[in-house]
Amino acid sequence: MAPETATEAVATQGTKTSHRRTMVGVVTSDKMTKTVVVQVSRRVRSEAYKKYMTKRVKYKVHNENLDIHVGDRVEIVESRPLSKDKRWRVSKLIEKARNV
């Protein structure tokens, strides 16, 4: 079955989805060159106690432009290994940190 219009043909041909994981977290350290540490928090229900707990994981994330600082909320995306510990890149800045 051939597409009826040119736009329909382009829409069906150019649909490439990314299989990379994305997460949202808060930057906790920016002291390294081109690397920031991002803490990702998630709420998990405990099977034993039936209460919600906060699980936190820290990731070393590649920051090429050096424009991300402590307290910023960022979206990170999975990438190829960039160093011994870095497997993530900053994809976009969601919210700048408020200066107190």
Record the strand order, biggest sheet.
1-2-3-5-4
| Helicity range | under 10%
Our Rg estimate from Cα atoms comes to 19 Å
Task: List the secondary-structure elements in sequence, H or E.
Answer: HEEEEE
Name the CATH superfamily classification: Nucleic acid-binding proteins
Low-confidence stretches: none
Report the strand count: 5
Topology-level CATH name: OB fold (Dihydrolipoamide Acetyltransferase, E2P)
How would a crystallographer describe the biggest sheet? 5 strands, mixed, barrel
So what's the overall shape?
globular
Strand fraction equals over 45%
The number of domains is: 1
Q: Which CATH architecture would you pick?
A: Beta Barrel
| Tally of contiguous helical segments | 1
CATH domain class name: Mainly Beta
Give the structural class: mainly beta
- What gap, in angstroms, lies between the N and C termini? 61 Å
In round numbers, the mean pLDDT is: 88
Secondary-structure map:
Layout: H1 6-13, E1 22-32, E2 35-45, E3 52-62, E4 73-78, E5 88-95
Parallel strand pairs: 3-5
Antiparallel strand pairs: 1-2, 1-4, 2-3, 4-5
